[in-house]
């Protein structure tokens, strides 16, 4: 991430006033970056781009390193970056960041699971059916059709649908939906319960269908302008994996941390 930010900050240098083409060439030879934008680009978008490209590069590095080292599995990724008076939180997976501000829990990330990304995964499956192998379908049903449902009408939705419609069940509809299950039990290709993160390049479903094409290392980046917020020493940032958030709410986590910090402060004053 540091490397990407250095690239961005270099390109934030404004053009020199009154510089000629010869000056530009001379400065370029000295290694000073000049930025002549065709359209206005905000500093925020450059920092977001640095985070996004760093996530992508990290995932590609894992893909390359697994050829030299024994690297199996994958992980979620959650990064908090404080820069230029703002907090940037980049999240890929179901880890979570929560800001406690004025004793209120402010979510700074969304969980990326088969449930929350059902439509993206199904649309990819519809566009590239070869990724599904022989055992999966991109269609979604209000309940999983079985053999006795053949020829009957059942509620379904295609990849381009957000609502439901009826269709007559055929043998093809008995395949496993690419996203199956609900809530924390939802899975992609009946295998994995998270849709963004690093690694899992060799993960396969039981029928040897690769899972990685349906996973993404792209983070969602949320921004909090600290300079324009009434932030004090009592405000804090909580970051945790799903192991924490599966057993507690954002509000309960904030309450617990605040209580713990208060107790520590009281002990120090004794």
From TrEMBL:
Pfam family membership, one: PP2C
**Naturally occurring in which organism (per UniProt):** Timema genevievae (Walking stick)
Please name the InterPro entries in this protein's record.
PP2C, PPM-type-like_dom_sf, PPM-type_phosphatase-like_dom
Question: What is a single molecular function from GO for this protein?
Answer: [pyruvate dehydrogenase (acetyl-transferring)]-phosphatase activity
Q: What residues does the PPM-type phosphatase domain cover?
A: 1-270
State the name under which the record lists this protein. Answer: PPM-type phosphatase domain-containing protein
Q: Which SMART domains match?
A: PP2Cc
| GO cellular component terms attached to this protein's record | mitochondrion
Superkingdom is Eukaryota
């Amino acid at each position: 991430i540091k490397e990407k930010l250095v690239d961005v900050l270099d390109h934030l240098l404004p053009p020199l006033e009154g510089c000629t083409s010869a000056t530009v060439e001379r400065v370029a030879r000295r290694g000073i970056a000049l930025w002549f934008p065709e359209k206005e680009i905000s500093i925020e978008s450059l920092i977001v781009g640095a985070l996004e490209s760093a996530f992508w590069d990290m995932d590609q590095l894992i893909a390359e390193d697994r050829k030299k080292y024994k690297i199996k599995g994958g992980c979620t990724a959650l990064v908090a970056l404080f820069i230029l008076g703002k907090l940037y939180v980049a999240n890929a997976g179901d880890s979570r960041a929560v800001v406690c501000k004025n004793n209120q829990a402010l979510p700074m990330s969304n969980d990326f699971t088969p449930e929350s990304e059902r439509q993206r995964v199904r649309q990819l499956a519809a566009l590239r059916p070869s990724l599904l192998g022989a055992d999966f379908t991109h269609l979604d049903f209000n309940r999983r059709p079985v053999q006795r449902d053949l020829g009957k009408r059942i509620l379904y939705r295609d990849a381009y649908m957000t609502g439901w419609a009826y269709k007559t069940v055929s043998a093809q509809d008995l395949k496993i939906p690419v996203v199956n299950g609900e809530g924390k039990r939802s899975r992609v290709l009946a295998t994995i319960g998270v849709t963004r993160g690093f690694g899992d390049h060799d993960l396969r479903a039981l029928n040897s269908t690769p899972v990685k094409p349906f996973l993404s290392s792209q983070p969602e980046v949320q921004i909090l302008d600290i300079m324009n917020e009434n932030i004090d020493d009592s405000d804090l940032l909580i970051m945790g994996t799903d192991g924490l958030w599966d057993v507690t709410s954002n509000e309960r986590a904030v309450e617990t941390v605040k209580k713990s910090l208060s107790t520590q402060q009281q002990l120090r004053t004794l």
